[in-house]
């Protein structure tokens, strides 16, 4: 007895699977393909879904920095001098593989360039997976500090509802994987001195602030004299020293205060923009 013929198994594979002329041409073209997929295609696909990072260099006031990114956002900013050092730093901070074949989307590149120039309105997506909630709270609050101004560690702690966690705020800022984009250089010690900086130490922090227009020498002079706040004798409002309102106070109307209690006792009220009362909290 003969077995039934399997028409599908016996089909002539040289014949087209469709009679539509357009599809026949496409099918024929696909059959003629001989080139393998580009070697970097797999890497680009992994970068796009956030399983692997890529990186590019950007110019900043501190010199060239490398920016690692994936399809979810920026993961690291670092001033390592060469690719090997950058990869080692990335492995330490991020822990994902790093490749160099993917092209950064134009929209992301433009947003990064705007943010690096000090534009807070530029929305740069950040990939902070695996980071502690407290650290993310600290970094997101730091994003609110305007260009050309600084805030003390204690201000950050109070603003996120953890007024006693000043030291922990400093630790979180030291672990900031995306300095300049999250401007931790704009956070100083509660006594007004500059403090440390994860992207090259105090000297780089000073350079970054001066590039944004902060008079660091004046800030340190006020700190040395114990002056933490500046008030206006005309408005009776007191501010943190770099608040844009404080910068408009003329010399003859400027009043210095050592504490919020001293300012309140003199009949001054706290600025609603820079919120100096957060430092006292």
Brief rundown of the structure:
This protein has 281 residues and is of the alpha/beta class. It is 35% helix and 14% strand.
What's the arrangement of secondary structure elements?
Layout (H helix, E strand, L loop, with lengths): L20 H11 L9 H8 L5 E7 L2 E8 L2 E6 L4 H11 L12 H11 L16 H10 L8 E2 H7 L6 H9 L12 E2 L12 H11 L4 H9 L4 E4 L4 E3 L14 E4 L2 H6 L3 E2 L6 H4 L1
Parallel strand pairs: 4-5, 7-9
Antiparallel strand pairs: 1-2, 2-3, 6-7, 6-8
Could you explain how this protein is built, in words?
33% of the residues are buried. The strands form 3 sheets. Strands 8-6-7-9 form a 4-stranded mixed beta sheet. It is 35% helix and 14% strand. It has 281 residues and is α/β, with parallel strands linked by helices. It is built from 11 helices and 9 strands. The N terminus is likely disordered. Strand 6 and strand 7 form a beta hairpin. The protein folds into 3 domains: 75 residues, 2-Layer Sandwich (Double Stranded RNA Binding Domain); 83 residues, Arc Repressor Mutant, subunit A (Orthogonal Bundle); 54 residues, DNA Methylphosphotriester Repair Domain, CATH 3.40.10. It starts with 20 loop residues before the first helix and ends with a helix.
């Amino acid at each position: 007895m003969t077995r039934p013929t399997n028409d599908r198994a016996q089909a002539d594979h040289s014949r087209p699977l469709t009679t539509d002329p357009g599809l026949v041409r496409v099918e024929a073209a696909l059959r003629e393909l001989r080139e393998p997929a580009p070697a970097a295609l797999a890497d680009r696909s992994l970068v796009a879904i956030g399983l692997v990072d890529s990186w590019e260099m950007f110019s900043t006031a501190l010199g060239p920095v490398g920016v690692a990114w994936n399809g979810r956002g920026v993961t690291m900013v670092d001033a390592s001098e060469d690719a090997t050092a950058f990869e080692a730093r990335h492995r330490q901070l991020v822990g994902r593989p790093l490749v160099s074949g993917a092209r950064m989307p134009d929209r992301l590149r433009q947003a990064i360039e705007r943010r690096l120039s000090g534009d807070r309105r530029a929305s740069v997506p950040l990939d902070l997976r695996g980071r502690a909630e407290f650290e993310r709270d600290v970094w997101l609050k730091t994003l609110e500090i305007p260009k050309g101004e600084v805030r003390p560690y204690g201000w950050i702690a109070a603003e996120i509802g953890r007024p006693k966690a000043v030291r922990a705020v400093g630790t979180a800022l030291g672990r900031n994987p995306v300095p300049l984009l999250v401007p931790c250089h704009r956070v100083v010690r509660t006594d007004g001195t500059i403090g440390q900086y994860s992207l090259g130490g105090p000297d780089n922090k000073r350079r970054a602030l001066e590039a944004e227009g902060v008079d660091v020498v004046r800030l340190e002079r006020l700190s040395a004299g114990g002056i933490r706040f500046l008030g206006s004798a005309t408005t009776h409002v007191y501010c943190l020293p770099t608040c844009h309102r404080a910068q408009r106070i003329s010399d003859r109307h400027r009043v210095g205060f050592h504490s919020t209690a001293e300012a309140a006792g003199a009949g001054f009220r706290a600025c609603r923009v820079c919120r100096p009362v957060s430092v006292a909290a």
